[in-house]
Amino acid sequence: MATIDLSATIGNETFHHPFVNAAGVCDETAPEMQSVLDSAAGGLTTKSATLAPRAGNPKPRYFDTDLGSINSMGLPNQGLAYYLDFIAHTETDKPIDLSVTGTKPADQVAALQQIQASNFTGLCELNLSCPNVVGKPQIGYDLDATRAILDQVCAFYEKPLGVKLPPYFDLQQYDAMAAILNQYPLTYINAINSVGNGLVIDPNTETVVIKPKGGFGGIGGQYIKPVALANVRAFRQRLRPEIKIIGTGGVTTGTDAFELILCGADIVELGTVVMQEGVSAFARITHELETLMQEKGYQTLADFRGHLKTQSN
Q1: 13-34, pLDDT tens digit by residue?
Q2: Cα–Cα distance between 83 and 152 in angstroms, integer?
Q3: In the prediction, which pLDDT does 12 show?
Q4: Is 218 annotated as a binding residue?
Q5: Which of 109, 195, 249, 280 has the highest CB neighbour count under 10 A?
Q6: Does 193 appear as a known binding residue?
Q7: Considering only CA atoms, which of 92, 105, 98 is closest in space to residue 77?
Q8: Could you read off the pLDDT of 225-273 as tens digits, one per residue?
Q9: At which positions is FMN bound (predicted)?
Q10: How far apart are CA 132 and CA 137, in angstroms?
Q11: Backbone dihedral region of 60: left (phi > 0), alpha (psi from -120 to 50 degrees) or beta?
Q12: Which of 22, 24, 16, 23 is nearest to 40 (CA)?
């Protein structure tokens, strides 16, 4: 049986396994983050950190459904200093991707200034796509705002930087956003965050299932896999080759992950499936991907990454 190499490189980090947690899943506290590092995950993504700690939205703010989940967490986190301290005092050979955000652009810039001044040298993910902060729009849907914040950040930030994007639904949106992203020295993008402002109803009680925003929240899980595949594929076709892609959305099996990599993802993040199954999902999905690669005769992720075929006339 041929040896399967599941490694992938993004910036200055090598992931020996292609699966990490999505920001917001098993990553708010030190014990949660350590549980990911101790699992079969290839690395860790921290909770999207704000400058100061946040309690997040009122509960209930997360609900599992038959095909996925809905949430309106509202960025609960321990504050940027907490995550920088965790990274500084954690010994691991797995990459740790530090996710940061803010409720306004000035806070995001200030957070990255702190990281630039710190000893942290790993990947940093600027979250431009949280749909669940009450009264705050997603920066990733505003082309001018995206350009403005990247102008500010890239004027001083010299470490590996990625951006987490919301889902796009039109070819013109892909064209416009890719044209902006290609102007900056980004290490990667993460596509996609949850599909914002969905609604789930309990027909028995005739009420919405989460409390914040009148029940509106981000949809994750199997519902959004086709959207994630489309976004990864579209951006891989449009971005400079050196900008890597983290694929996120709807992965519950090794086959799902295979499809995202086939569309061009370098590594894959797991969200809802880890919320529902726990960190054991990393080992299961890794095994399923290895088995599928063996059946197809692939030995590395590069053997099929981005090789999606189209139907000819």
Answers
A1: 999 999 999 999 999 999 999 9
A2: 23
A3: 95
A4: no
A5: 249
A6: yes
A7: 98
A8: 999 999 999 999 999 999 999 999 999 999 999 999 999 999 999 999 9
A9: 47-48, 127, 164, 192, 221, 249-250, 271-272
A10: 9
A11: beta
A12: 16
278 is in an annotated binding site: no
The Cα-based distances of 193 to 24, 139, 208, 219, 246 in angstroms read 11, 12, 22, 9, 11
pTM score, whole prediction: 0.97
pLDDT at 313: 61
171: how many CB neighbours lie within 10 A of its CB?
11
- Tell me if 284 sits within 8 A of 255, measured CB to CB: no
Catalytically active residues, by annotation: 130
Classify residue 93 as exposed, middle or buried by CB count within 10 Å of its CB (0-12, 13-18, 19+): exposed
How many angstroms separate the CA atoms of 310 and 95, rounded? Answer: 34
45 marked ligand binding residue:
no
**Residue type present at position 65:** T
DSSP state of 89: T
Is 71 labelled a binding residue?
Answer: yes
204 is in an annotated binding site: no
